[in-house]
Design goal:
Layout lengths: L2 E6 L8 H14 L3 E8 L5 H14 L2 E6 L7 H20 L4 E5 L1 H14 L2 E5 L4 H7 L8 H20 L2 E4 L2 H8 L10 E3 L14 H11 L7 E5 L8 H14 L4 E5 L5 H9 L7 E4 L6 H5 L4 E4 L13 H8 L4 E4 L5 H8 L2 E4 L4 H13 L4 H12 L1 H18 L6
Parallel strand pairs: 1-2, 1-4, 2-3, 4-5, 5-6, 6-7, 8-9, 8-11, 9-10, 11-12, 12-13
């Protein structure tokens, strides 16, 4: 079993912290790995959230070291946080000699690679996505400005170095792995494993008629309405305008249709563009919920809806909502060109992928959705292959065992 230092610049109290960090680590700790966890927590998160997560870590035997995330000033605050992460990582490694440093995305990987050079700790680069390209394509780094052009160039050089130094690389998609092996020429000597954003199927059970009826009563949705559901924050990558355009086409066919947003986002940025498209507030439900409440809210839906900007970097993206919607056995309408989404829908037969985000594309998608008769055996087998949390844990466990066996005995 391995002694693992897990570094994340995302917080455990962030929306994906419980499902995409802690859920894996609890099971890996149960498998016998000794895990120390360093995260950066947003000051605005509630004390109750933090205390609940601390209790889960304690119960699982995970040694959690939350640090405070700083947002301003830009760039300098990130440099400060990286210095803190480096100090904490080196202090913990001096106290407990780790076999592996598991780095979630690029910034922690800079710290993990340094730790490997200093102490021989095996370095697991869990890329999550093509982070530097995401910053540019998401509009966060404007390459017209010299400072961001320089930062992007520096990170692309570091990216090559991190991939060369890593003892193992994890990516979220097969499309991303193909880019690493092909266009980016990562050699076969560097192991690359695909582990998508998995879902806890027990936490997201298949929707039953009773669950759907109860959810609709709680949301004041008529029992016979057609309900589309969007899950998660809107953010940089999700195409709210196009999703509302699609729903407007749905309402033209079915004026009683309802679009449900299960999100922590404020309602106003959704209501205003909806009104511009002639979608009244009465056709929308915008509802926040705890992680435990989310499946009960989603049970109101007939299908899930999400469109993501299909940029280069999104080929390495695995939408968390995809696995959760598949777990609940809700058909999906989405757009083509993002990660492995197209091949997953083809393999499972669980939904419709739209090539053209225009009225004719929306009409075709609605026609396909109306006639969709999925083979549930095929759906469930494909869902398990791609998104079962137990399978994701098994792959991480195998990587931990492999890397801990390579760790030199004695301090580096």
């Amino acid at each position: 079993m391995a002694a693992v230092l897990y570094l994340s610049y995302d917080g455990l109290t962030d929306p994906l912290g419980p499902s995409q960090v802690l859920a894996y680590l609890v099971e890996l700790a149960r498998a016998g790995h000794r895990i120390s966890l360093v995260t950066f927590e947003k000051p605005e998160r509630s004390a109750a959230e933090r205390e609940a997560l601390a209790a889960q870590c304690l119960a699982a035997g995970i040694d959690w070291h939350p640090q405070t995330y700083t947002k301003t000033p830009p760039i300098l605050s990130t440099m400060k946080d990286l210095r803190v992460m480096t100090r904490v990582a080196e202090r913990l490694n001096a106290r407990q000699w780790f076999d592996i440093v598991h780095c979630r995305s690029y910034l922690p990987a800079l710290v993990g690679a340094r730790l490997k050079r200093k102490s021989g700790t095996r370095f697991l680069f869990d890329m999550r996505g093509f982070w530097a390209d995401e910053r540019v394509e998401g509009g966060l780094w404007d390459l017209a400005k010299p400072i961001y052009r320089a930062i992007y160039g520096w990170f692309k050089k570091q990216e090559k170095r991190l991939l060369a130094e890593a003892d193992h690389v994890v990516v979220l998609t097969e499309a991303g792995r193909d880019i690493l092996r092909g266009e980016w020429q990562v050699p076969a000597s560097v192991p690359v494993t695909v582990i998508p954003c998995c879902a806890d199927f027990a936490a997201f059970p298949a929707v039953t008629p009773d669950a759907r009826a109860a959810a609709r009563r709680s949301l004041e949705i008529p029992g016979n309405a057609t309900v589309a559901a969007y899950l998660g924050s809107i953010g940089t990558w999700y195409m709210l305008g196009e999703m509302l355009d699609f729903f407007a086409v749905q309402r033209a066919r079915d004026p009683a249709a309802v679009l449900l947003f299960v999100t922590r986002d404020a309602p106003e940025p959704i209501l205003a563009p909806a009104a511009e498209r002639g979608i009244p507030a009465s056709a929308l439900r915008i509802q926040s919920g705890t992680r435990a409440e989310v499946p009960r809210l989603l049970a109101a839906a007939d299908y899930g809806l999400f469109f993501i900007r299909p940029t280069f970097s999104k080929q390495a993206s695995s939408p968390v909502k995809l696995g959760e919607l598949l777990a609940m056995e809700l058909p999906i309408v989405t757009n083509a060109g993002v990660g492995d989404v197209d091949r997953i829908l083809e393999e499972t037969g669980a939904g419709v992928s739209i090539d053209a985000l225009d009225r004719s594309g929306y009409e075709r998608a609605l026609d396909e959705l109306a006639t969709l008769r999925p083979d549930m055996t095929r759906w469930r087998e494909g869902r398990a292959r791609w998104f079962d949390l137990g399978e994701g844990v098994r792959r991480y466990d195998a990587i931990y065992d492999e890397l801990s066996a390579l760790r030199p005995r004695g301090r580096g």
